[in-house]
Amino acid sequence: MTALGSRVWPGVGPSVLAVPLGATEQHGPHLPLDTDTTIAAELCRRLAGRVPDVLVAPALPYGSSGEHAGFPGTLSIGRSALEHVLVELVRSADHFAGVVLVNGHGGNLAVLRRAVRTLREEGRRVLAWSPSGRADDTHAGRTETSVLLRLRPADVRLEAAEPGVTTPLPDLLDRLVAGGVRAVSPNGVLGDPAGASAEEGEAVLAAWADALAAAVHDWLGR
């Protein structure tokens, strides 16, 4: 049993706490709003299966998603609120051996870096990790569609899947920052979901889980 929420307090020892950090935001016309949270939670679950003494916290399903505000269903708590939540959450976890923040949403990255810097300056043991991917397939494209086909196939509307903009993200940043995702991709997709499959999704998840476990082992000095 690796889920923190199912424990009673006498059963919580000096474990490492893995916190899934996600978002609730549009993922094109074919993927669910909680895609990033689902991915972060699955990676934490796999981490707990590979690294001893890891407990998985309940997922944080809201992040900094202002760039997706032009689409219905997106909920964002903004950068300052997210930073405050992360700092206070890790401060409250002093009885754990350390905290790993497993992030599933690219829009959280800048906030995550600031929060981790603050926490480390306070002497707290914290690691932040995010999956890597192709610069032309960053949101609701082939990678995320494949992963969701592996994890929650009933919630993927393949009949509604359509390509978005495939320009590499660094070349879109100025327009994206100025006008949000809707200004660069009317359907909210940054990539092309064509060719997605559950088999590819499992391969992606396995590679991400390997990288996450390796990062945690290095961090723990094991």
UniProtKB/TrEMBL annotation:
Its cofactor is Zn(2+). SUPFAM superfamilies: Creatininase. GO terms for molecular function: hydrolase activity, acting on carbon-nitrogen (but not peptide) bonds, in linear amides; metal ion binding. Keywords: Hydrolase, Metal-binding, Zinc. It comes from the Bacteria. One of its GO terms (biological process) is riboflavin biosynthetic process. Transmembrane segments: none annotated. InterPro entries: Creatininase-like_sf, Creatininase/forma_Hydrolase, MftE. Pfam families: Creatininase. Belongs to the creatininase superfamily. NCBIfam families: mycofact_creat. This is Mycofactocin system creatininase family protein. It comes from Prauserella muralis.
